Amino acid sequence: MGISLNNINKSYKKLKAVHDITFDVKLGELFGLIGPDGAGKTTIFRILTTLLLPDEGEATVAGLDIVKDYKAIRNSVGYMPGRFSLYQDLTVEENLTFFATIFGTTIEENYDLIKDIYEQIEPFKDRRAGKLSGGMKQKLALSCALIHKPKVLFLDEPTTGVDPVSRKEFWEMLKRLQKRGITILVSTPYMDEAALCDRIALIQDGRILEIDTPAAIVKKFPKTIYNIGANNMYKLIQTLQGYEHTYSVFPFGEFVHYTDKREAFETQDLKHYLEKADLSEILIEPTQADIEDAFMELARK
Amino acid sequence: MKRFIGFITKEFYHIFRDRRSLFILFGMPIAQIMLFGFAITNEINNVDIAILDHSKDATTEEIINKISSSKYFTIKQIITREADIETVFKKGKIKAVLNFEKDFSRNLIKEQKANIQIITDATDPNTANAITSYINAILKNYQQSKNEDIQQPYQIIPQTIMFYNPELKSVFMFVPGVMTIILMLVSAMMTSISITREKELGTMEILLVSPLKPFQVIIGKVVPYIFLSIINAAVIVLLSIFIFKMPVEGSLFLLGAESVLFIVCSLALGILISTIAETQQAAMMISLMGLMLPVILLSGFIFPISSMPTPLQVISNIIPAKWFIIIIKGIMLKGVGMAYIWKETLILVGMTVFFIGLSIKKYKIRLE
Amino acid sequence: MKEENVIEAEDLTKAFGDFTAVNAISFEVKKGEIFGFLGANGAGKTTAMKMLIGISKPSSGKATVAGFDVYTQHQSIKKNIGYMSQRFALYDDLTVKENITFFGGIYGLSRARIREKRKQLVAELGLDEISDKLVGSLPLGWKQKLSFSVSLIHDPKIVFLDEPTGGVDPITRRQFWEMIYKAADQGTTIFVTTHYMDEAEYCDRVSIMVEGKIEALDTPKNLKQQYQVNSMNDVFLKLARTPSPTLPEGKGENTVIE
Q: Which of A218, B142, C112, C151 stands the most exposed, by the fewest C-beta atoms within 10 Å?
């Protein structure tokens, strides 16, 4: 009785935003929708929160149909749209009170749910929301979405544009919420956050590339990835792009992630090839693929 | 220099590719010139007048015919007693009464002069002046034509009475009108901006995905502005009374009640605008351009509606301001009570209900 | 051969009333370097960058960019640098070609040179099919790549990139960085701010700003060694949490107005 989507399609004017989206989110799951801008994440959220009608397909949220039972859904879900959508000229406390009131509850009634989140911004409760930093706005928006104890929580890119420290803290808060039995659907463009979800759906250009647990997706990665390092990153990339056996070469931090067309090969051969191109300090070693590698491989097709 | 030209070229691209700015550049001026041209006129046409004829003889009949056959006047009513003059003015349709004294013809022949009163509703002093001059001209003309073939010239002596506004103070005309315009603009603009702001900031999304019903959002947006606009209206009335020395012949309470009605009507109009406009800027543009200009021109507070071509007269009926100005002028200057303005009041009530109903219906419960 | 410094800042400060956004920062950037300028939102990155590109006057301190003084020669600075930001880069209601022509004109390129550049950019980015389409209709990734190329249209010595890859898909992001590498290889200095910590690894050197001050300035490798961690992300987390002489409690909670 979590969330389910079946064959959802939606177009805006001539542009098809999402194609044949089908997936389920189990009760109490922390599910991530991972993809870049324009992938269709926000469209899916708006359909599930009943703000948009799909052109085709059905979906349910907590067992309620998004078309027929939209009022019931709107009464019971928590929604945090992009850009945090808070009232900039109301204070922290006023914002929270407002959201509690329109959902027919009070701050005190469900305070235990938001306690460890709200505590961090409580010292600033008389400050206008517009004057908060990104990390604090994020915490306030989350508190406002939770104040009426929703069964399902929709968070659309809650960590975008926020510093890494706040991002990390935010996911820790989500994990704690999950323990209380709330079903959470989150979207994010940050691949490293994908690993923190129970299951994820990788999405690009309105289509789902893959759905599974992060571990399983990484395991499914068909090739062995090699970390290759050298003294000149740019030259290294150029040289590898000119190599006949290269399947893919992408910069990844201080190394390049390289995959070979062949099943297995001699790393020494590759090393010689690179040395011939005047590269030095060469390092070649196999490494574990991560979500980003998997995403890029799936997106290639 | 090249950079500068490059920049200008880009600006042209922006303008031509933005339909809204094209509309403002070309569409609006043309529409408004047409409106201005036809609506703005200091001439009078088809003004409704009444006749109080104590003589009912051949001369008065001739004069009455001459007046009725001119395009400036329409004889709408014949009254029989002096007391009816005020009644007829209170009703609002008649703008002037011609009062012929008894034995008009006989007086002309025997004493070479006869009297006629031109009594005008001077709550609109410009129109009153125009009416008086035109009637005087017609009388002079008649006098001249008659005097061509007799020895002793006749003299028709007109006495002008400016009812309600003997000093012809134009402030009597302007203050009600300006009060109406201000109330309408502020109310409509404020509510329309308030709603579109939520849309622009994205907080509308959250309101939609909540238990709040559409009518709660709409009425909720209107209520604070009702209180604030009432204060506004009170201040304007006080200023009019104490600084401009406007009279309040009628009931202050009725004035207050009608003002509240008009405020609610304007607020409802603002809500309606916000359901059409997507951004605050659009809301402001529609409120200012779409409301202000037509209201100023077609509400009748500067330019008499009766002088405008028929299509414009018909359009003026759907402008709430027109009805409210009749109501305010009636209460403040003529001292009328509900008996005389129930029709206008009912129309305003109907418009308010219509705007609110339509807004609730058009309130988008989804994002597209 | 001494590597020349294309950017030099000494005790550069910017204060708004009694709030100090940038607090006496000092650093240099060498020619051809890819310099990463990191920091949380509200740490002062954007304010500092605005001073360097000549659109904001410092409250005190010194700085030169491409040899020009930021106080007195900011017009010359603007002529000699390129700039691209995530928020705005190109005009959505102009076509690809029109945008290239416009920015070429702004930088004073001759008509012939603009034509040449236009052909070159369209070919390099593979935009032949869509060169007459409005930029607004392009996917985000193409827009970013095109903006970057346009920012280089006048062959500037330094190009300033303000969070250029926000929200872009992973493949395009890397293609973008390949373009950055190429430009750096050809001698253009790149000054880039980013939120993606893995992109910090691509830089030659990185500086991290916390509450108006530079708390770290070194190569990614050295920083990782210094803080005993494996990634720049962890360096950042450690930095924000470790009490340092200039950080109050190092709680990492930023309460500054953005």
A: C112
Query: From edge to edge, which strands make up the β-sheet containing C158-162?
Result: C81-85, C158-162, C189-193, C34-39, C205-210, C213-218
Of C168, C194, C162, C178, the residue nearest C84 (C-alpha):
C162
The predicted complex's ipTM stands at 0.84
Same domain, B91 and B192: no
Chains B and C form CB pairs within 8 A to the count of 30
Give residues 5 to 44 of B whose Cβ lies within 8 Å of C.
5-7, 9-10, 13-14, 17-18
By the 8 A CB rule, do B144 and B57 touch?
A: no
Strand order in the sheet with A64-65: A15-25, A3-12, A56-61, A64-65
pLDDT digits (tens, 9 = 90+) for C79-88: 899 999 877 7
How, if at all, do strands C19-30 and B96-100 pair?
unpaired
The proportion of chain B whose per-residue pLDDT surpasses 90, expressed as a percent, equals: 21
- Chain C residue with minimum CA distance to A188: C167
Share the mean pLDDT of chain B: 86
Tokens for C107, please give them: 């930088």
The confidence band for C253, taking pLDDT boundaries of 50, 70 and 90, is very low
Which one of A77, A85, A144 has the shortest CB-CB distance to B202? A85
Residues B14 and B89 in one domain: no
Tell me the residue type at A286. P
β-strands A56-61, A3-12: how paired? antiparallel
Of B58, B69, B122, B115, give the one whose Cα is nearest residue B94: B122
End-to-end Cα, chain C, rounded Å: 42
Smallest CA–CA distance, residue B16 to chain C, in Å, is: 10
**Closest to B207 in 3D by CA, of A101, A186, A40:** A101
Distance CA A202, CA A217 (A): 10
Shortest Cα–Cα distance, A182 to chain C (Å):
27
* Confidence class for position C254, pLDDT limits 50, 70, 90: very low
For residues B240 and B328, membership in a common domain is answered with yes
**Domain shared by B140 and B111, yes or no:** yes
**Collapsed DSSP state (helix, strand, coil) of residue B230:** helix
pLDDT confidence band for C250 (50 / 70 / 90): very low
Name the DSSP class of A276: H
Contact flag B367-A83 (C-beta cutoff 8 Å): no
Q: Are C231 and C209 in contact (CB under 8 A)?
A: no
Q: How many domains does chain B have?
A: 2
Q: What confidence score (pLDDT) does residue B35 get?
A: 76
Are residues A36 and C41, on separate chains, in Cβ contact within 8 Å? no
Residue C250 token pair: 């190092």
Angle at the Cα of B301 (from B296 to B305), degrees rounded to 5? 90
Chains with at least 3 CB pairs less than 8 angstroms from chain C: A, B
Q: How far apart are the first and last CA of chain A?
A: 33
CATH of the domain at B97: 3.40.1710.10
Chains that contact A by 3+ CB pairs under 8 Å?
Answer: B, C
Averaged pLDDT score across all residues of chain C: 86
Closest CA relative to residue B204, chosen from B364, B342, B326, B77 = B364
Q: Of B147, B163, B179, which one is at a domain's C-terminal end?
A: B163
Inspect the interface and report whether the beta carbons of B6 and C98 lie closer than 8 Å: no
The predicted model scores a pTM of 0.82
> Å from B20 to nearest chain A CA?
20
pLDDT in tens, C119-135: 998 888 888 888 899 99
Q: Domain of residue B334: give its range.
A: 2-39+170-367
Domain boundary among B144, B163, B182: B163
The residue assigned the tokens 């071509």 is B309
Mean per-residue pLDDT for A122-149?
90
Dihedral sign (CA B41, B46, B52, B57): positive
